[in-house]
Design goal:
This protein is of the alpha/beta class and 244 residues long. It has a single domain, classed as Rossmann fold, CATH 3.40.50.1820. It has an eight-stranded mixed beta sheet, with helices on both faces. The N terminus is likely disordered. Pfam families: DLH.
Length: 244
């Protein structure tokens, strides 16, 4: 099943001049952007398969920081090569075996410790895109230190009831036309969360949107998609503001 591409068309991307800077935290490199005023609230951004240096992800880090959060995107791939748009699809399942979004606990702990000890963060949320959306879903089941999560088009992994016992409020964002996540899967997720989840959650599907829609920079958006992209980002920020 993993062999079908769950990437979006990276197409032509405009250059992005970042507002933050890179840091080394234990065994991880990370990109950090701070708001213009001091705060004890932070957000971790979990990147997609294109890794922590991808311009779209840095744009999102800066965007969240602009709303008043110390925002950090660690390299969850720990210095190994991210997926590249020139790589061959046949190799994707093998690449995924070595880049498992369910094996991010150690990295999350390193970043949480850094945010608390070095940045004075008291409340920390997490948002993740695609591969990172899967990582967020996993971490919201495992790590009570994360006070809220937003998972954007992370593939839905069905293995047990345990997948639905979220520890803290989690918001799931999907595109209606995502070729990797069917509406049936989304309805099933909703049913299961109703059954097992004891904390606030929300699922929202954005009309006409494809995989990866919410992280495009303004100059890379198509006019028809722009309102939905902006709405998804507002919704993401609102969820964070409500719980972090």
């Amino acid at each position: 099943q993993m062999a079908d591409p769950f990437l979006y068309d990276t197409g032509e991307r405009s250059h992005y001049g970042c507002l933050g800077h890179e840091v080394q935290i234990e065994h991880l490199k990370a990109y950090v952007c701070r708001p213009s005023f001091s705060t004890d609230k932070a957000v971790i951004v979990a990147h997609d398969v294109f890794g922590w240096r991808f311009p779209d992800i840095r744009y999102i880090v800066d965007l969240i920081a602009g709303h008043g959060y110390i925002t950090i995107c660690p390299d969850f791939f720990k210095g190994t090569e991210p997926w590249k748009s020139t790589d061959h699809w046949a190799d994707f399942p093998d690449w995924m075996k070595n880049h498992d979004p369910m094996k991010v606990d150690k990295e999350a702990d390193v970043v949480l410790k850094y945010l608390k000890e070095q940045c004075g963060a008291k409340k920390i949320g997490i948002v993740g895109f695609s591969w990172g959306g899967m990582a967020v879903h996993h971490l919201m089941l495992k790590n009570p230190q994360l006070t809220a999560g937003v998972s954007l088009y992370g593939r839905i992994i069905r293995d047990s009831e345990e997948r639905y016992r979220l520890l803290n409020p989690t918001f799931f964002i999907f595109g209606e036309k995502d070729h990797t996540i069917s509406l049936d899967q989304i309805f099933l997720l909703e049913d299961k969360l109703k059954q097992y989840c004891k904390v606030p959650y929300k699922i929202k599907v954005y009309p006409g949107q494809v995989h990866g829609f919410a992280q495009l920079k303004p100059e890379d958006m198509k006019p028809d998609d722009k309102p939905y992209i902006e709405e998804a980002r507002r919704d993401m920020i609102d969820w964070i503001k409500m719980f972090v």
